[in-house]
Fold this sequence. Notes:
The complex is a heterodimer.
Chain A: H1 2-7, H2 10-16, H3 19-64, H4 71-89, H5 99-129, H6 138-159, E1 164-165, E2 175-178, E3 181-184, H7 185-207, H8 209-219, H9 221-226, H10 231-257, E4 259-260, H11 264-279, H12 284-303, H13 310-324
Helix pairs in contact in A: 3-7, 3-10, 3-11, 3-12, 4-5, 4-6, 4-10, 4-11, 5-10, 7-8, 7-10, 8-10, 11-12, 11-13, 12-13
Chain B: H1 2-9, H2 13-21, H3 23-41, H4 47-50, H5 53-79, H6 87-101, E1 102-103, E2 108-109, H7 112-134, H8 139-159, H9 161-164, E3 177-178, E4 182-183, H10 190-212, H11 214-224, H12 226-231, H13 236-262, H14 272-285, H15 290-318, H16 332-346, H17 355-361, E5 366-367, E6 370-371
Antiparallel strand pairs in B: 1-2, 3-4, 5-6
Helix pairs in contact in B: 2-3, 3-10, 5-10, 5-13, 5-14, 5-15, 6-7, 6-8, 6-13, 7-13, 10-11, 11-13, 14-15, 14-16
Amino acid sequence: MATANATSSSAGRLLGSLRLPIGIVAFLGISLTVLGIDQFVNALTLGAIYALVALGYTMVYGIIELINFAHGDVFMVGSFVAMFISSSLLGNEGAITNVPLLAGSVLVLFALTIGVMAIVGALIERLAYRPLRRAPRLAPLITAIGVSFILQNVIQFFFGPTIVTVPQLVPIEWSIQVSGARVPLLNLFVIAASVALMFALQLFISRTRTGRAMRTTSMDRDASSLMGVDINRTIMITFLIGSGLAGAAGVVHGLYYGNTSFNLGFQSGLKAFTAAVLGGIGNTAGAALGGFLIAFIEVGASAFGYGRWGGAVVFSLLVIFLVFRPTGLLGSHSGDRA
Amino acid sequence: MSRIVDAVNAPFAPVRAYFRKHRSFGIFVGVVLLSVALPLLTRVPPFDGIQSTNAWVNAFTTAAIYAMLAMGLNVVIGFAGLLDLGYAAFFALGGYTYALAASPFSGIHLPFWPMLLAGGIVGAIFGVLLGAPTLRLRGDYLAIVTLGFGEIVPITLMNADKFTDGVNGIGGIDKPNIPGILQFTLINPWPMYGLVVVLFTLIMIMIYRLEDSRLGRTWDAIREDELAAESSGVNTVIAKLQAFAVGASIAGIVGVVNAAKITIVTPDQFRFAVSISALAAVVLGGMGNTIGVATGAFIIYLFQSILLKQLNTLVENFNIPILNQIDFLEFQYVLYGIVLVLMMLKRPQGIFPARRRMREFAPLKIGKGGLK
């Protein structure tokens, strides 16, 4: 619903809410001075990953009002698919110093993982959610929880319950100096890639025919069906895109952290969902904003020595926001439901 | 065919009529019969070959604890229609209440029996505390809030190590005793079995009586149509809070029993998977049907702890190459997942649907008299 809100009237929105960019700039400035440049870049990187995952939550919620509980695990599966493609198919073991080769490998890795995950996501939608489209609202949510458990176990079955290493293709030594601090190129690459994907998504939703179909479907499914929108196809495309982005987040996670594990999806999924709620669920720009916010809160907590409490803080924030401001920071169309 | 069934049933008709009239007594008789029959059954092949009777009784005790948990969750989900994904948190709070009141860690040794009540009260208090601000939320948002709460509680228990000894948890928890008569031990599973049977009976009777009470009908109304219920003068917030409190206090009481049974509580015992296992039992048994839900819990528990374990030993004995590397016990989680997905897709009313739900899910019959 709010995908439309966020994009169709983006011009009016921009004028109406100049306080938002000012707020963001102020927030970034304060964070930068409080955290220092190292932690600041870390938070931005983590935020990029959360934002990519949060987009999938928010898009699906926007269009079928389902909290796709399995989305965090789709991200987790994405990180494993990326690991498998990178180490087994492309035969990578570690950093690649040859720039054209590196660029090629990373590009192939992104393309393949996004493709595979898009198909996985669409399959889940087709098999688990579509039959329940007219069922009571809690039914697909319960199914989604089931799917989440199944995904975790399938991965655990194939890759074991331990942490698995992922080849870090971009050499970690590569870095640039920013006012005395060493900023790894890897972080910049992660941020740039994520932001590029987010912009691509915004363009897709606001400029293409399919994007318009997605927006109308989220506004009024029956009416858009009467206007000739193929609802099933549109919803499936939403899942394709959301899961593809989660796949991209999986690639990025592997490149950045160099490892993954089968239970990655639950916690980070819940955090990404919090991000989506924070930004106003159903609102794609909000999801991105929320992702960065969550990351800053988490990194800030650990910078001050409360890292163990990071999760508790984030979940408390989730509870508080759902209770007191269910429309999130940027507002969402679905607020009336809560 | 039905004539034969009727003929067989005929002599029992007065008995059935009697128990329909005196349901609480019926539940009592049923549970007592079952609790005697189950241990006897384990002396008969093939069950006697699997494990000793004591081990079986221990397993039944755990299964009954799990079943009580599921029945409590069923009050929230099945009766009031609120999806609670953080139910394990109340279970944890009950367990930690008893652990703090009766263990070497805190140095206090309060008797077990009043703590049973205290666990229920602590559960109810936290249920109300969580419910009061959140119950305005509808459906899936409430689910996520409870899920967040369910995560916050173990994280807090883990990190507040001054009070809870963090990851290690609290061990050496006192066993219950009846002074001068009976001391519960870890070796002898029978006293705990008896305790759980009594508690199980009481909780089941209480839930059935609640279901038929004014409050139970209020929950029905809210679940079916909240707006209509509200318009008819039902205070939905209070009724929902009561559902939360009842569910949470059952989890608290069961948490106390569980802590006393295994004599240790750790934050890891109360993770998300526990909430989901209870949810799987509710969904499998049939939301809203107390006996069905308890049966669902027994099925899931026995399946995961007996059958999967058997599968492990079987594969080990036959030394099948790839398969013996697999720990089938890990598949209990995928079991929950499969139960949830398949039930929701194929049989959302559960294997033992509540009578009301059965009618709900049945296709509309359009006869001569129009829509019935």
